[in-house]
Predict the structure.
Amino acid sequence: MASGALESVIEQAFATYCLRFPPLRAIPLGMNSFPFDIVGFDLDGTLVDTHLDLATALNHALGVAGRPALPPDTTRSLIGGGTGKMLERGLTLTGGMVSDDEFERLRDTLVDFYEDHIAVHSRLYPGGEAMLAELGERGVKLAVVTNKFERLAVKLLDALELSPRFYTVIGGDTLGPGRSKPAPDMLDEMVRRAGGGRAAFAGDTSFDTRAARAAGLPCVLAAFGFLDAPAGELGADAVIDHFDELIPALGRLG
């Protein structure tokens, strides 16, 4: 067969093969050698931007106390450490603390209002859906570890249809008093519930970085969250500005 005819036959065969068997999706380098078995996430300010719903609940409680509402730029800086911390900061800014009994009443008011309006504005941060999907494809076990009450965390994740992605949700009240972040207990429990394995944690405040350090886990800081100090001062092992950066950052930490 002449060389020209042979080349024509090869080209036709190649074209037929490619049409019948389209290219496989490229598998990211290192897909099967990801360094972590478990990745835990803080919730507010890390996975989900909950600022406006929390701010509305805080201002509702402040209004019940006869205090002025706080603007969004202020309320954003008050989030972190749970609803009690947020309320305490809000009261301090608007006239000072109240009695213990009044504080508990206002905290209940805040939580009840928030629970009834938990996902009006709250949304997963950009890139979060693709990031969670890829970690799931890699076989990584995903957890939420938050100082938010467990029932509120579960309700928020349910409302955003995120709950099926996580093998466990651990809230600030799950283990009892004195065991929420920055104590390491919740992260230790996260690893225990997974049956062991190498774990990392992603958060956005000093509560998260201190808890991870105490538990001996690498920590990635979400700089787009509710930082309570400059990102470079929070002691994280890596800092990201978008969820597209999380998996590469974890790969480097491994």
Remarks:
- The radius of gyration is 23 Å.
- The longest strand covers residues 141-145.
